[in-house]
Structures are given as C-alpha cells and as structure tokens.
C-alpha cells in the first residue's frame, strides 16, 4: 500500500496523492553555458526524464530557465541556495518548482515574500535536507547527522513556510549512508503528510552509486514511500533517468518502455545471451512499448522460466524458439535478434 500524501503540481505533473512516482534528473552543464544546458535538457527529455532540475547559482543564471523551457516541455525545478531574490527571479522566468531551504534565506520577511510569490503562481517548494549540510544546533542535539536530525531539519524548514500559510511542499532527507537515508525517510513519512522526493546523496560512480540508490530508494518504494525520485550518480544524467525507471520497475511500479529479462547462462546455453540481450536493450531504448522481453539460453528451462515475459527467445541447436506468453510460436534461424525485433514491432 502506498503512503497517502498531499498532492502538489509541478507544471502539469502531479507529485503525491497517489500519482505515479516520477523520475527526475539534474542538468550537469556549467550554468554559464546556456546553449549547453538547453541541449542537455533536450537529451534528457528524449530519454523520458519527467522533471528536470537546474542549478541557478547567481541572479544572471536565471536566463537558463527561459532557455530550457523554450527547449523542452518537461517541468523545470530551479535549485537555489540562500538567495531568495534568485528564487523570485526564477518564478518570474516561469519555473515550475523551487528547491530552497527557507531556514537559510535570512528571516521571516524573506520567507513571506517567497511563499507569497510561489502561492500566486501555484509553484511548489522542495525543501532538501542533506546529511552533509545540517544545522549546527541539530548536530549538537543529536551528536551528528542522525536520521531524526535530518527529519527535524526538514520539518523545521517546512514550519517556516507553514507559518506563512504555504503548504505546497515536497521534502527530501538525503544521506550518503543508505541505512540512514532509509530510516530518515521512514521517520519523515510517519511524521508528515507531504510528498517525498527520494534520493541517496553522494552515491558515487555508475556501478557503486546505482547499487546504493537501488537499495535505498528500492527499500522505500517497497514500503510504499516516495512520490518522486532522483538517482544521483557521478555519471551522465541520462543514466540517472534510465536507472530511475529500472528501480521503479524492479519495485513493481509502473515505468515507461520495455524491460529486457535474460537468464544468467550456464552449461546448457545455446545462443550468445549477453550479446543479444545487451543489443536488444540498446535497440529498444526509447520505445514506448511497455512489454517484457526475455532472452533465454536454452529451450529446456528457458521457455518456462521466461513465461512471465510477453515475448522472448530461447536458444536451441543452431536455432532459437520464439515464444509468446510461454507458448512456442516458431523456430528462428539466422539472425535471432532481427527476427525478435520484427516480432516485437508487430506487437
Ligand atoms: S535458461 Fe537454460 S541456459 Fe539459461 S540459465 Fe537456465 S538452464 Fe541455463
């Protein structure tokens, strides 16, 4: 059962309140390179990114917002630290969500201006707390960035907005230690009704980072917690988006596009499973078909084990068997991959 949270709208995209969990990523081009940011936004939109975030470090960088919005229709979040004037300018430029921590912007009057401006435009605010940047009093109170310290920080920032009558809030409590991150989100989920943005911070490079994100985000999704997510990786943001959808799919939640499953291979393997499965993933990338495709090494176990797939192949002697929903359809010879792709095309 999914946790019931308040719903906010980011551009046209709903977060929380039972809406599908969305996958976000963040642009990684230097802020001064406006054309480069717009080009990367187009690449991310093309691979299905549902919400885009861009750093806006200085007032002059607000020009990124118009350029990115002109390039893509994906809702855009401006990531702003400390300076509420940048947030106000980003709102004027048409941004769809602001990521800012109201406790860091210099007092109630500035929080009021920010909250009023966001409210007037229907723009939500994400409060993003990280283990590495927790307030000193909380570090002293808890003896370090503990899960409850992260939660107290997030709820403390939220109270500043609530005091201004603003509740279109999304919260995140990211930590680099997966166990801390999972516990923090579980505590937060129990202590508020806001939609939650999931992520592991400083997760690392492609392989190690993916494992940490999958364990942390996956554990929470299986608990029914989480309304949007970003897989943070020291890698191209397209990889973050694909990983996000793979984690959703693995947690049994809807994700766009096809899924390729394949057997681990063994002494019975008759066809080059890894080569076919990898090429298949590459060729199917970007396809809108929500199907499961199996590549199995042998007919002995492959057809039965691949039964949950919509379509697949299993290796035979100098041939492969094409099967649909566990039923053999015909024997393929020659280029199995092209034959399988032709069949998928017909589905
Ligand atoms: S499907 Fe066949 S080849 Fe693949 S692991 Fe199972 S028994 Fe081995």
Describe this structure in words.
The structure is a single chain. By secondary structure, the chain is of the alpha/beta class. The chain folds into two domains: about 240 residues, Dihydropteroate synthase-like (TIM Barrel), CATH 3.20.20.20; about 90 residues, Sulfite Reductase Hemoprotein, domain 1 (2-Layer Sandwich). Helix content is about 40%, strand content about 20%. The protein has an eight-stranded parallel sheet. It has a five-stranded mixed sheet with strand order 11-12-13-14-15, with helices on both faces. β11, α10 and β12 form a beta-alpha-beta unit. α1 packs parallel to α2, α3 runs parallel beside α4 and α6 crosses α7. The longest helix has 17 residues. The site of iron/sulfur cluster has 13 residues, from α11.
What's this model, at a glance?
With 347 residues, the chain is an alpha/beta fold.
Topology (SSEs and partners):
Blueprint lengths: L7 E3 L2 E3 L6 E5 L7 H13 L4 E5 L7 H9 L4 E4 L4 H9 L4 E3 L8 H14 L3 E6 L5 H7 L4 H16 L6 E6 L3 H14 L5 E2 L7 H17 L5 E3 L6 H14 L8 E4 L10 H12 L7 E5 L2 H7 L5 E6 L2 E6 L2 E6 L3 H11 L1
Helix pairs in contact: 1-2, 3-4, 5-6, 6-7, 7-8, 8-9
